[in-house]
Amino acid sequence: MNAASRLCEIIAQGGKVSPDFYDDDRNFAAFKQHGFMREAGVLASVVCDQCSEMHSAPVVYDQLGHGYYCPELGLVELAPEQVIAYLPDLPFLIGKLADLLDCKQRKASPLRGQTWRIGAVTAASEQIMLFFHPRLQTEDDARQLQDALSRQARSRWQLVLASQGTWPMAEIATARLDEVVALDGETGALCLLVDPTTLVGAPRVSTGGRPSSYATRLKSLITARIERGEMVDGLNAEAAQLRAEFASAYPTETPPSLATVKRHVKAARTGS
Question: Where are the domains of the chain?
Fold first, then answer.
């Protein structure tokens, strides 16, 4: 399972998770390292797999530390790292998505319940409002989302990303987060797979003009950096590194301006 899909799976659970459960999953370690998961106290219960019949048991605490009671084994002690609980850091994720899409009108806290506004993306003359809701699998999920969106100014183009489910909704496009965004487990960088303009069906406007003489080579360098997991989050930082790489690859040519490089990096990230 790729990193974005694993993160979606964890978010969809809607609660605390144990790192022990993902002990062999390198993606989970990357989530903790890059900020997608945060510590959230201790676990309420654990699974005992040391006796003849696997079972769930509440975590207890005494002066000696944490543990749980097993009918066969009695009190089983747990190491401190075995009881640490983790939660997806949704404010961090929403901020990363807003940065990736260069959104305006961001909001760092939920609109209502579990509905988040990522922000507004301008495509040609159209404004697309992007939201996130953890699950869109049932009518109840859709009702909660509608309730939150009813408190927002009406936008012609709306896109809701969900970690699980794409319940059909009138005048609102829905998509799974892991089908729209890729997550590099090595660097923690996000990369857009599908342009929001395409997902909502908004019209595209061709700007015309002569293609940049740098376009093909910059696109090739960007693709190579993505494949090597070398892209960094910040637009300015990535553009500076890409410009330096262009100068190294083509030493006899004048490198493109930083503004030109930033334009190509942004286009690659947004799929436009």
Answer: 3-88, 90-189, 215-270
